[in-house]
Each structure stands twice: as C-alpha cells, then as structure tokens.
Specification:
CATH superfamily: Hexapeptide repeat proteins
Structural class: mainly beta
Number of domains: 1
Helix content: under 10%
Shape: globular
CATH class: Mainly Beta
Number of strands: 28
Distance between the termini: 56 Å
CATH topology: UDP N-Acetylglucosamine Acyltransferase, domain 1
C-alpha cells in the first residue's frame, strides 16, 4: 500500500493537477511537484489582505483568500476557493488544490494539498502529500527530517530522499498534537487519535491510538 494509485483518487483532483499523481510510488510526487512549481507564473487575482507578504512567482486564483499577516515564498500555486489564514507561512514549492486550507500559524514547505485538504492551525507540514479531504487537528506535525540526516526508507524501498514527510491518503483524519515520523504513509480513511505517533505504512481503514502505561505508586501510611 505504497503506490500512488492506492492512496489517491485521481478523479477527485483538479484537472490541471492530475499529472502530479502520475507516479508509481507516492514519494515520487515530490519530484513532479518541483517541476510543476518551477513553471508557475506570477498571477495574483484572489482576495489578498493588505498585510500579507508575497514573494516570487505565486499563482492565486480569483476565488482564493489570503488572510492577514500571511507570508508566502514562491513558487506557489493556490487554486480556486483555497484559503490561507492568519499568519500562515508557505515556503517554496507549495501547491494548494481547490478548497484546500492552510490555517492560522501553520507552516507548509514543499507540499501538495489535494482538494479540500486542511491543516487547520498550528501545524507543520514538510515535504508531504495530503489527499482529498484530509484533516489535521490543531498542533499536528508531519516531520520530514531524520535525527541523523540519513536517507529515508519506506517498506525496504530506498526513496533517495533526506527530507520526506507524510503521505496521507484520501479522507485521513489526524487528531490534535499527533506526530508522523519522516516517511510515514497512511492509507485511505484511517483515523489517528490525538497525541499518537505514527510511523511506517499504516493500512487503510485503520484506527491508531496512543498506548499509555500508567505506573501506580504505592502509598504508605
């Protein structure tokens, strides 16, 4: 369950972004993302708050909304009805499909949000793919760099990447303050509870919870 076709329904993706999913493995989407963003022309048509700072080539569709104190470093693509909310930070190489949302004080770097994907607030999303209607609760972090900086392997496959976040399939939901380890793949419709740490390849339609052990101290009178 690591192939692109197993994770994302191409029929739910904007027509002009479907080519990004034309890969065998999910992590290969990032290379196509680089090529796509390198060709972006500067076009700013949406509702852009006067305090927002936008640098480089950024495509902002007419119905997109850029909130106050947003900072966008191009290249970036922001499609119809997408929203970037208060004090969010988009670093180079971000693509937001239709109705995607980057919430308040969220940082996104070199990532693809497919249609209606949401990182609501206080999130970090690095080198990651968020499928259709993915939802990240407050404080969710998608880590993209291993402690010692070595290349990331997934299910014995060498990705060749030192920076790789999470690939979250369509309709995945992650609860508040959960964290994914670099190179995590999560199958469709899976739910990850708050505070959990997800790693490896997680099957579709799963539920992942934090297992806590409590040590009861003895009381002496």
């Amino acid at each position: 369950m690591i192939k692109t076709s197993e994770l994302f329904d191409i029929n739910l993706v904007d027509d002009n972004l479907q080519d990004l999913l034309d890969t065998e493995f999910a992590w290969q989407i990032l290379a196509k993302l680089d090529s796509f963003t390198a060709e972006i022309k500067d076009l700013r048509l949406g509702k852009i708050h006067p305090t927002a700072v936008i640098e480089g080539n950024v495509h902002i569709a007419e119905s997109a909304v850029i909130g106050p104190h947003v900072y966008i470093q191009g290249p970036a693509w922001i499609a119809e009805n997408a929203q970037v909310k208060h004090a969010a930070y988009l670093r180079a190489g971000v693509v937001l499909a239709s109705a995607a949302e980057v919430g308040a004080k969220t940082e996104v770097k070199r990532s693809l949000f497919l249609n209606s994907a949401k990182a609501a607030h206080l999130n970090y999303v690095g080198d990651s793919i968020l499928g259709h209607k993915v939802n990240l609760g407050a404080g969710v972090k998608l880590a993209n760099f291993k402690t010692f900086g070595t290349n990331i392997k997934i299910a014995n496959y060498e990705t060749g990447l030192r920076k790789l976040g999470a690939m979250l399939a369509d309709n995945v939901s992650i609860g508040c303050n959960a964290v994914t380890v670099p190179g995590t793949i999560v199958g469709k419709r899976t739910i990850i509870y708050n505070l959990a740490m997800a790693r490896g390849v997680i099957a579709a339609d799963s539920i992942l919870k934090l297992r806590q052990q409590f040590e009861l101290s003895k009381r002496y009178e």
